[in-house]
Design brief:
Elements: H1 3-16, H2 21-31, H3 35-45, H4 50-66, H5 80-89, E1 92-97, E2 103-108, H6 119-145, E3 152-157, H7 169-182, E4 187-193, H8 197-206, H9 212-217, E5 218-220, H10 226-229, H11 268-281, H12 301-341
Parallel strand pairs: 2-3, 3-4, 4-5
Antiparallel strand pairs: 1-2
Helix pairs in contact: 1-3, 1-4, 2-3, 2-4, 3-4, 7-12, 8-12
InterPro entries: CRAL-TRIO_dom, CRAL-TRIO_dom_sf, CRAL/TRIO_N_dom, CRAL/TRIO_N_dom_sf
Domain CRAL-TRIO: 79-239
Protein name: Phosphatidylinositol/phosphatidylcholine transfer protein SFH2
Length: 342
C-alpha cells in the first residue's frame, strides 16, 4: 500500500483511540471486524488527508448514534404489503456475486418511480439495505472467500429513463449524500447499461464535474452489457435485465419469473432481508406502522452542483422536446392545410 499510506492509517488509528465509547461501539458495527479497511475507505474519500478523514468518520459515527442506525435492522417496514410497494417503486436488489466475491447490486434507475410511499420509507429501506449488506452479506462473503470484502459492484439499468425523473432529484440527492458521507468508497465499479439518449446527454455535462477517482469507477457498457459483465461474474449472477437484450428492468417484468427479478419482494435476497429484520424485531414491543425517521444531511457543494447541473440539463432537454413537438405539430398542420387546398 505504500509507506506514506501505512503511516496515515497508523495516525488514524491513534486518533480513533480518543473517541467516546459510544462511538467506538457503533464503529464496531460499521467495520465488522475489519477496521483497517474502514480507515482506508475514509482516507480515500478525503484524498488521504488524515485530519479530514478522521473528522468525516467521527461525523458519520455521531450520525449513526444520533439516528440509532445500529437499531435500523430491527425496524421492518410494515405491513409487508407496504414493503412490497416500496420494492415495486425503488428498484434495488442483490443479483449475486462477482468471481472475486464482490456483491453485485442491481439498480433500476429508469423505472424507479418512488411514488408508492413517503420519502422516509425510501430512505429507511435504502439504509437498511446498506446495513444488511455491510453487517451480513459482506462478512459472509469475507468468510467464504477468506479475505476482507468491503466493496460491491453496482449495475445501473437506465431503461425507461425519462425527463420526468427530474421529480426524483431531491430524494436521490438525499440518498446519495447519506452514502457519500456515511458509506464512502463502498462501490468498486459502477456499470451503466441500457443507456438512452437522455443519459448520454446528461453524462456529457456531469462527467467533468466528478472527481477523478469517481470517473474511473464508472463504465458505460453497450446495450445490456451482458458480454462485458460475464467477464467478471457468472451468468447466474447477472441482473435479470442483463440476461437478454431489451429485457429491461421494468418492475412488472416477468421474463424469467419474479424469483429471478432481483428487485421483487419475492426474490430470495429481499425475502431473506425482510425475514432477518422481522426476526431482529421479534423480542421488542409489537410493531406499529410508521417509518424510521433519519436526519437528512446537507449535500456538500460539489454534490449540490452536480444535482443542479442535472436539473438544468433535464430542463434544457425538456424545452428542446417541447420545441421539437411544436415544430412537428406546425408541420402537420401545414401539411393538412396543403392537402385541403389541393
Amino acid at each position: 500500500m505504500g509507506i506514506a499510506n501505512d503511516d496515515a492509517i497508523k495516525q488514524f488509528e491513534i486518533l480513533m483511540e480518543g473517541v467516546d465509547e459510544s462511538l467506538k461501539n457503533t464503529f464496531q458495527n460499521m467495520h465488522q471486524g475489519y477496521p483497517t479497511e474502514t480507515y482506508v475507505r475514509f482516507l480515500r474519500a478525503r484524498d488521504w488527508n488524515v485530519e479530514k478523514a478522521h473528522k468525516m468518520l467521527v461525523d458519520s459515527l455521531n450520525w449513526r448514534v444520533q439516528n440509532e442506525i445500529d437499531n435500523i435492522l430491527t425496524k421492518p417496514i410494515v405491513p409487508a404489503e407496504l414493503y412490497r410497494k416500496v420494492r415495486d417503486s425503488q428498484l434495488v436488489g442483490l443479483s449475486g456475486y462477482s468471481k472475486e466475491g464482490l456483491p453485485v447490486v442491481a439498480i433500476g434507475v429508469g423505472h424507479s418511480s418512488y411514488d408508492k410511499a413517503s420519502v422516509n420509507y425510501y430512505v429507511q429501506s435504502h439504509i437498511q439495505m446498506n446495513e444488511y449488506r455491510d453487517r451480513v452479506v459482506m462478512p459472509l462473503a469475507s468468510q467464504r472467500y477468506e479475505r476482507p470484502i468491503s466493496t460491491c459492484i453496482k449495475v445501473l439499468d437506465m431503461t425507461g429513463l425519462k425527463i420526468s425523473a427530474l421529480n426524483q432529484i431531491k430524494l436521490l440527492t438525499v440518498i446519495t449524500t447519506i452514502d457519500d458521507l456515511n458509506y464512502p468508497e463502498k462501490t468498486d465499479t459502477y456499470f451503466i447499461v441500457n443507456a438512452p439518449y437522455i443519459f448520454s446527454a446528461c453524462w456529457k455535462v456531469v462527467r467533468p464535474l466528478l472527481q477523478e477517482r469517481t470517473r474511473k469507477k464508472i463504465q458505460v457498457l453497450q446495450g445490456c452489457g451482458k458480454d462485458e459483465l460475464l467477464k467478471i461474474m457468472d451468468y447466474a449472477s447477472l441482473p435479470h435485465f442483463c440476461k437478454r437484450e431489451g429485457s429491461g428492468s421494468s418492475r412488472h417484468s416477468r421474463n424469467n419469473g419474479m424469483s429471478d427479478n432481483c428487485f421483487s419482494f419475492d426474490h430470495p435476497f429481499h425475502q431473506e432481508l425482510y425475514n432477518f429484520v422481522r426476526e431482529q424485531a421479534a423480542p421488542r414491543p409489537p410493531l406499529k406502522q410508521g417509518s424510521f425517521h433519519v436526519a437528512f444531511p446537507e449535500p456538500d457543494a460539489d454534490d449540490a452542483k452536480i444535482a443542479k447541473t442535472i436539473e438544468t440539463e433535464f430542463h434544457r432537454l425538456e424545452d428542446q422536446k417541447d420545441k421539437n413537438g411544436l415544430v412537428r405539430s406546425l408541420s402537420k398542420q401545414i401539411s393538412d392545410l396543403d392537402i385541403k387546398i389541393n
